[in-house]
Write a structure and sequence with these properties.
Length: 197
């Protein structure tokens, strides 16, 4: 076998491995969506064993760790995903969520803003940025972020009820009721929207 044939075989083998990784990652994502975290974690671990810097696998593993309450591991996997793919908006947003849980609002804001630089129309990142601002007491900026999220995704229930909460903290009951109405239009049974109303 000459060098060209060997390269062609190696290329074909890489292609099969990449195809297999994509199928495995798809299965892992389905398990993750259905709450089968251990199954998702096992599948993702298989991918990471072969491709330790696979950005999607690292991102999903970070999400799995977060959902299991393993925050430091989640932060590590998400940071590794960002290192492997710095323009990965979803990984920045997911890291923002974990940092919010850890009450690290400055870094959470930084990652939400980075996600929005990469993808300005990312409604979830706008909402998470609003959450971080609200936790820091920057209520006007929080409202602006929630408005941006709702402008991009009119069905973003969390942005609506969080905006109602921010308006209540600003003592603006009229705007709070309007935000509650928006939330309850999205989901008439939303407990947060009902409670704030």
């Amino acid at each position: 076998m000459n060098r060209a044939q060997r390269r062609q075989q190696e290329k074909a083998a890489r292609s099969r491995r990449n195809s297999s990784s994509a199928a495995t990652l798809s299965q892992a994502a389905e398990h993750l969506q259905r709450g089968r975290l251990k199954r998702a974690e096992g599948l993702i671990a298989r991918i990471l064993k072969v491709h330790p810097t696979h950005p999607d696998a690292l991102h999903y593993q970070g999400v799995v760790m977060y959902q299991q309450g393993r925050y430091q591991e989640a932060i590590k996997h998400l940071a590794d995903a960002i290192s492997a793919a710095p323009d990965y908006a979803e990984a920045h947003n997911s890291l923002c969520i974990v940092l919010l849980e850890q009450r690290n609002y400055v870094e959470a804001i930084s990652h939400a803003e980075q996600a929005l630089k990469i993808r300005p129309n990312f409604a979830g990142a706008h909402a998470n940025l609003g959450n971080a601002y609200q936790e820091q007491g920057e209520l006007g900026r929080a409202v602006d972020s929630y408005r941006a999220a709702l402008a991009l995704d009119s069905m973003h229930r969390e942005a609506a009820y969080r905006m109602a909460s921010a308006y209540l903290a600003l003592n603006d009951s009229e705007q709070a009721l309007a935000a509650c109405a928006t939330c309850l239009d999205i989901d008439p049974y939303c407990q947060h929207g009902l409670a704030y109303a």
